[in-house]
Write a structure and sequence with these properties.
Helix 5 packs antiparallel against helix 6 and helix 11 crosses helix 15. The chain is globular, with a radius of gyration of 21 Å. It has 2 domains: 177 residues, MFS general substrate transporter like domains (Growth Hormone, Chain: A), CATH 1.20.1250.20; 219 residues, MFS general substrate transporter like domains (Growth Hormone, Chain: A, Up-down Bundle). The protein is an all-alpha fold. Strands 1-2 form a two-stranded antiparallel ribbon. The chain is built from 15 helices and 2 strands. The two termini are 25 Å apart.
Length: 410
């Protein structure tokens, strides 16, 4: 891969995650503060993203891969997304906001797969070269979340304006990316898109347990994305009454989770060799339970270390379960069905699992919130008990039923 191509792809990946990170972790707080939502519509807004993730493979598989240059599709989708984001900034009612967010996510979700596809198409050795490009996505997320924090706009419409401007930049920039013409030919079936050929893996009991667990653990993941920011903001506001919420720089604190993700990603190969897949997955599940209990019992006044620990555990939670799960799926599938196996897991987790999780997260927050806006009071301990309990059930499933011979190396 040419150095100039690598630079272009790195910028593309940076902008892609900059657009996403500007609003994703902050949307729940924005809807609570600005749209006076107790939580239910915020749950639907996050579920809209997961619904779009289910639909996106059909768009990519049946249209983008067959009829259009991928970089042009990326450009058009981002410009369309920017227009929808502009409309979103004008909405002041939660149900209309959630519906418009679904329309936006229909334009945004396909770009996640598109950027990865464009990058890999121009690499001579994707296994070695892709991580160096993909890391710019994580760096972008850290950068934009810190920008939001320093500006003190985590609960303001500015987060969507930042995303809108970034989408316009990426939309124009995409037309200057290396040409990526369509390569797929012939019809694509529904079965291929959902990974039908990978269904053979369900003959393996341990893979079935892993598959079910992957869906279930996405429910706690949804709670984290939807409510960690709001929970931390309320904790600091309770400890320091009368202080403006933007003073606490919650987004800056939460960016430590992405820093942790990078660090544990680097440690993962060594941990995988030392502990094996089952123990790594179990460590990840224990981390999930621990972080939610820390969110529930920690407070900014006399146990702030728990809140920081809950944030920093993100790397263990995400890398040791989801990334290890990708590696496990890859090893179980073999070369012939490897792609379909990963498609099946992605559809189940980011689609089905996070859709259920986002909906439930909204319901649980609403059930445990009293009062009227702007004086909502949420029993966060009761909220965090739910994802902690679900993670505990998944851990029990693994301990009782998952059997896998230790793998010596990645």
């Amino acid at each position: 891969m040419k150095t100039s191509t690598g630079i272009l792809l790195s910028i593309m990946m940076f902008l892609q995650f900059f657009v996403w990170g500007a609003w994703y972790g902050q949307m729940g707080k924005y809807m609570t503060v600005q749209l006076h939502d107790k939580g239910e519509w915020a749950g639907w807004a996050y579920a809209a993203f997961s619904a779009a993730m289910i639909i996106a493979p059909f768009f990519i598989g049946m249209l983008a891969d067959r009829y259009f240059h991928a970089q042009k599709v990326l450009g058009v989708l981002n410009l369309l997304g920017a227009a929808i984001l502009f409309l979103l900034t004008k909405i002041n009612e939660p149900s209309s906001f959630a519906l418009t967010m679904f329309l936006y996510c229909l334009s945004f979700a396909p770009t996640i797969a598109l950027t990865s596809s464009i990058a890999m198409r121009h690499m001579t050795n994707p296994e070695k070269q892709f991580p160096a490009i993909r890391v710019f996505g994580t760096l972008a997320w850290i950068a934009v979340v810190n920008l939001v924090g320093f500006m003190g706009v985590g609960d303001k419409v500015t987060i969507f304006e930042i995303s809108m401007i970034s989408a316009v930049i990426l939309g124009v920039f995409a037309f200057f990316l290396p040409k990526t013409p369509p390569v797929a030919t012939g019809p694509m079936s529904f079965g291929q898109i959902v990974g039908k050929d990978a269904f053979v893996l369900f003959k393996d009991r341990s893979f079935v347990i892993f598959f079910i667990s992957s869906i279930l653990i996405c429910i706690p993941l949804s709670f984290y994305y939807a409510w960690a920011n709001s929970s931390l903001t309320d904790s600091y506001s309770a400890a320091f009454p009368g202080v403006a919420p933007e003073t606490f720089k919650i987004e800056n604190k939460m960016s430590l989770g992405q820093v942790s993700e990078v660090l544990f990603m680097l440690l993962l190969p060594f941990a995988y060799k030392k502990f094996g897949v089952k123990n790594i997955l179990i460590i990840g599940l224990i981390a999930w339970i621990t972080r939610f209990l820390f969110f529930g019992y920690g407070n900014a006044e006399n146990s702030v270390w728990m809140l920081y620990a809950a944030i920093l555990l993100h790397g263990v939670c995400y890398d040791f379960f989801f990334v290890t799960g990708m590696i496990y799926t890859n090893s179980k599938a073999g070369d012939k069905i490897k792609t379909q196996a990963q498609a099946l897991i992605s559809l189940a987790t980011y689609g089905i699992g996070m859709f259920i999780g986002s909906w439930l997260a909204g319901k649980v927050k609403a059930w445990n919130t009293t009062g009227t806006s702007p004086d909502f009071v949420t029993d966060w301990l009761s909220v965090w008990y739910v994802p902690a309990g679900i993670a505990a059930v998944v851990l029990l499933l693994f301990l009782l039923f998952f059997r896998e011979r230790r793998t010596a190396a990645l």
